[in-house]
Design a protein that fits this description.
The chain has three helices and six strands. By secondary structure, the protein is an alpha+beta fold. It is globular, with a radius of gyration of 14 Å.
Length: 134
Amino acid sequence: MQIQNHSDAVLIRTARAAQTAAIATGDFQAVASFWTEDITVRRALGQAVQGVKEALAALQPDDASVVPLVYQRETESVDVSADGLLAFEVGRWVGHPGEVQASPVIGGRYAAQWVKQDGRWRIRAEIFVALGKT
């Protein structure tokens, strides 16, 4: 499928890159700014997450002795709806223990639904599938 609106696809790719950078630096307020309030996430091993609070908790372990995974996402394609209000993103992801420079310990593919709200693209739903150390 071809990209319907090139400029919106570029905005989504840019937003994803900014969110990925925020994850790497631990700026979770910035990470959450890319989600809708009702974000739905299906984590890599199948756990369902609903809402910003739960989605942020999934990125930050409660136990200080647990090394958090730093997730990096790389967009492969973006398709924008004909009306320019919805978009579908597909890409690859990896999880690094503690910091981006560490070797990935898990990875796979993801898909995301984006919605344009008040002129800004936000993620409404994401699904991540663990496929190994890609």
